[in-house]
């Protein structure tokens, strides 16, 4: 299940994860729309160069800055949350959007839950692959938990005090 | 103090609704405990063995009398009639039901308060000087900046899942009463040669298992840029702080591992990208917030009050109270008054609903309806007319607020320890009681003067024993309760980590050990020199030599098996919390 533009859509992409015994330099990247892990891209980019429908995924400890030019070639970049409490993906997303200017689909996958959606959206994610056992329809409510935010991030260019006229006590 | 505008109200209301729904989903089983845990922690809710504990925010320790009355209401309606003021200038309640917590938040919202980010691995409640705005040695009132930082850090989307908790502290005075050197980030408001306001920024301080004094990362960040600078620090930490080991996850470990120079370089790199960007503070926003912290309606008064001076001469108890619990004020004829929450046998910082209401009434009557919570777990009325001191003293006595021990040996900071905390190696509150009883002569205590005594029941250091002038740590030796003693620690101006004096002691030896330390001090001190200054001057050796010169006797009554702190009828009957998380 994938949430995109506040709707549940079918996911056209498959995610390649290395299984035990597979190596990044030798694993076969299947045909079609595939999201490959960074080590596979690093090892096989010569062979994969020509494929336009290729996505990339990053783990929390990986850094998009290591491939600053290549990021823009991917229509999809996914960030994998092995655990929802691993907050590195938020900074990774912020950097991709704000500092590297990535414009493609930025997808949160892994342990991505209802109660993290609001913050994830704020830092620049626009696609959310929830675990299969979760109710994605119900989770949509998570995007509207708040109607305002104090600080700037990817979604809001400026902090609240620059966006509205703040009052004294009301 | 800061007053909400409609945006603040709306945000807090939406937070209450969000948490209400999360609790509903938890109770229905839709949310698993593992998924819910972090959500509740970021609303201050801890799960204990027998109940839920909730920590409410008192941003930078400021509380209105209405908020204090609301705390009393919460204590009565949802808890067992009392609450506990913490060393981070907050208040917590220990006996709650999960299903009540959304209602508590809704009640709090009516008085412009919340529990956002009082726990969890996020940016926590910012602490500051309890005498902010009234201290004579203050250069700049830090509270407007504390509020601006509070708003920036509140529900920050990028920093809700940091490697570990993240604590900020800010001071604007010459003497550091906000312990900025032992926070993850410490800010000191300063002026540069041109008279412009900015911050000296320290990073990587903290206690716990690995006590570290913070290091300066920038000598002067102009105030407009403090948000972007702080954001740069937290971003680097979020990315590179360790996540594989709970005990190595604080920013201090990262700073130590890569060195302050490399850490500074990374932060500066990051700062280049957002400095001068839209998150830069504006004069208009500073002015708007600062307008909430203007001086209350002071009147012109004589510097001294005749009746107070007379009673000070004639009444020893009053003069002790004046000396210890009444602090000077930048406005002539006014004083800041501390209400002591330290009473023998009660967890330091505990207050009943009746006491909270009484404190609120005193604030309304004598101090413009405002109170502050101190990191020493007492309360402050910051703007009292000196001519009201006698009446206030009489009223404070009735409520048990007038113990004249602020800053003295018996103004102990101790953690819940073995009486309540499941992680403890040793009892803390019981030991505090033993010390209290041994040193019950107020004249002697006054003569000894300022001594910070901190007692932690285990290495997690909830009572900050590392920075006690005398620090006591419960240690485990083959299942037995022992105590390690250190001296020379200080929480600020400058902060220092105490040094262990030698092999550890039994419970019943500790009062005698403290007495011996004080005896060395009394012999060695010059005139008005404080204990800590004597330790700094003469070093550890004379203390060590004297303490260990002859066997330290055990105090007989402390050996009795029934020597118990927890008296019949006290509200605790089960382990209640470990504040370390
Ligand atoms: S965890 Fe904290 S409260 Fe518990 S014994 Fe240790 S220091 Fe004390």
Protein architecture, described:
The complex is a heterodimer of chains A (170) and B (581). With 170 residues, chain A is of the alpha/beta class. Chain A has a single domain (2-163), classed as Rossmann fold. Chain A is built from 5 helices and 8 strands, in the order ββββαββαβαβαα. Chain A has helices spanning 38-48, 88-99, 117-122, 136-139, 160-163, and strands at 2-4, 7-9, 14-15, 34-37, 54-59, 76-81, 105-110, 127-129. Chain A has an 8-stranded mixed sheet. In chain A, strand 1 and strand 2 form a beta hairpin. The longest helix of chain A is centred in the middle third of the chain and has 12 residues, at 88-99. By secondary structure, chain B is of the alpha+beta class. Mean pLDDT of chain B is 93; it is low at 565-581. A 5-stranded antiparallel sheet of chain B has the order 1-2-5-4-13. In chain B, strands 3-14-15-12-11 form a 5-stranded antiparallel sheet. Chain B has a 5-stranded mixed sheet with strand order 6-7-8-9-10. The interface between A and B is large, with 40 and 46 residues. Bound molecules: iron/sulfur cluster. Residues 415-417, 421, 423-424, 428, 456-458, 460-462, 578-580 of chain B line the site of iron/sulfur cluster.
The string of secondary-structure elements of chain A, in order, is: EEEEHEEHEHEHH
What is the CATH architecture term of chain A?
3-Layer(aba) Sandwich
Named once each, the bound ligands are: iron/sulfur cluster
Major sheet of chain A: order of its strands? 2-1-8-7-6-5-4-3
> What is the radius of gyration of chain A?
17 Å
What's the CATH topology name of chain A?
A: Rossmann fold
Name the CATH superfamily classification of the largest domain in chain B: Sulfite Reductase Hemoprotein, domain 1
Number of helices of chain B: 19
């Amino acid at each position: 299940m994938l949430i995109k533009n506040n709707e549940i859509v079918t996911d056209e992409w498959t995610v390649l994860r290395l299984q035990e015994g597979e190596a990044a330099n030798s694993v076969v990247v299947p045909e079609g729309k595939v999201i490959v892990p960074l080590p596979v891209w690093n090892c096989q980019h010569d062979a994969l160069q020509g494929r336009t429908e290729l996505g990339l995924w990053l783990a929390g400890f990986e850094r998009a800055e290591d491939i600053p030019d290549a990021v823009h070639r991917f229509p999809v970049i996914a960030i994998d949350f092995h655990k929802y409490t691993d907050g590195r993906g938020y900074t990774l997303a912020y950097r991709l959007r704000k500092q590297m200017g990535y414009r493609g689909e930025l997808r949160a996958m892994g342990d991505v839950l209802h109660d993290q959606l609001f913050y994830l959206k704020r830092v620049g994610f626009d696609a959310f692959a929830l675990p299969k056992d979760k109710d994605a329809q119900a989770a949509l409510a998570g995007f509207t938990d708040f109607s305002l935010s104090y600080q700037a991030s990817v979604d809001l260019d400026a902090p609240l005090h620059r966006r509205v006229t703040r009052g004294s006590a009301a | 103090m800061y007053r909400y505008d409609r945006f603040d109200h709306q945000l807090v209301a939406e937070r209450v609704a969000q948490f209400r729904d999360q609790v509903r989903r938890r109770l229905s089983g839709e949310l698993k405990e593992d998924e819910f845990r972090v959500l509740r922690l970021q609303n201050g809710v801890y799960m204990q063995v027998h109940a839920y504990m909730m920590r409410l925010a008192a941003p930078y320790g400021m509380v209105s009398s209405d908020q204090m009355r609301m705390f009393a209401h919460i204590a009565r309606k949802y808890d067992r009639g009392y609450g506990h003021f913490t060393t981070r200038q907050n208040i917590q309640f220990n006996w709650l039901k999960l299903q009540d917590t959304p209602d508590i938040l809704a009640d709090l919202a009516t008085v412009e308060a919340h529990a956002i980010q009082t726990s969890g691995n996020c940016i926590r409640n910012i602490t500051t000087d309890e005498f902010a705005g009234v201290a004579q040695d203050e250069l700049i009132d830090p509270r407007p900046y504390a509020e601006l930082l509070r708003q920036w850090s509140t529900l920050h989307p990028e920093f809700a899942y940091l490697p570990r908790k993240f604590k900020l502290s800010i001071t604007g005075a010459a003497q550091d009463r906000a312990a900025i050197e032992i926070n993850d980030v410490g800010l000191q408001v300063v002026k540069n040669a041109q008279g412009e306001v900015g911050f000296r920024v320290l990073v990587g301080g903290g206690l716990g298992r690995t006590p570290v004094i913070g290091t300066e990362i920038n000598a002067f960040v102009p105030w407009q840029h403090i948000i972007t600078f702080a954001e740069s620090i937290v971003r680097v930490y979020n990315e590179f702080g360790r996540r594989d080991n709970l005990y190595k996850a604080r920013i201090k470990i990262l700073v130590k591992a890569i060195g302050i120079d490399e850490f500074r370089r990374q932060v500066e790199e990051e700062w280049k990208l957002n400095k001068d960007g839209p998150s830069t503070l504006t004069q208009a926003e500073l002015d708007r917030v600062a307008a909430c912290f203007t001086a209350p309606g002071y009147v012109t008064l004589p510097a001294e009050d005749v009746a107070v001076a007379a009673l000070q001469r004639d009444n020893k108890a009053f003069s002790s109270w004046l000396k210890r619990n009444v602090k000077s004020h930048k406005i002539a004829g006014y004083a800041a008054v501390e209400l002591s929450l330290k009473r023998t046998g009660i967890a330091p910082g505990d207050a009943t609903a009746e006491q909270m209401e009484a404190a609120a009434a005193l604030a309304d009557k004598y101090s413009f309806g405002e109170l502050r919570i101190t990191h020493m777990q007492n309360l402050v009325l910051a703007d009292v007319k000196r001519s009201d001191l006698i009446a206030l003293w009489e009223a404070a006595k009735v409520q048990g607020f007038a113990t004249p021990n602020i800053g003295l040996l018996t103004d102990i900071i101790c953690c819940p320890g073995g009486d309540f905390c499941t992680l403890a190696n040793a009892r803390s509150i019981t030991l505090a009681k033993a010390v209290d009883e041994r040193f019950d002569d107020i004249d002697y205590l006054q003569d000894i003067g300022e001594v910070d005594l901190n007692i932690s029941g285990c290495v997690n250091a909830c009572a900050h024993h590392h920075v006690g002038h005398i620090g006591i740590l419960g240690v485990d030796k083959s299942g037995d309760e022992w105590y390690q003693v250190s001296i020379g620690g200080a929480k600020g101006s400058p902060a220092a980590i105490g040094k262990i004096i030698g092999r550890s002691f039994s419970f019943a030896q500790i009062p005698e050990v403290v007495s011996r330390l004080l005896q060395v001090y009394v012999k060695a001190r010059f005139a008005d020199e404080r204990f800590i200054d004597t330790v700094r001057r003469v070093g550890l050796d004379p203390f060590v030599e004297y303490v260990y010169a002859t066997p330290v006797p055990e105090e007989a009554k402390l050996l009795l098996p029934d020597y118990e702190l927890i008296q019949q009828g006290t509200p605790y009957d089960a382990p209640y919390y470990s504040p370390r998380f």
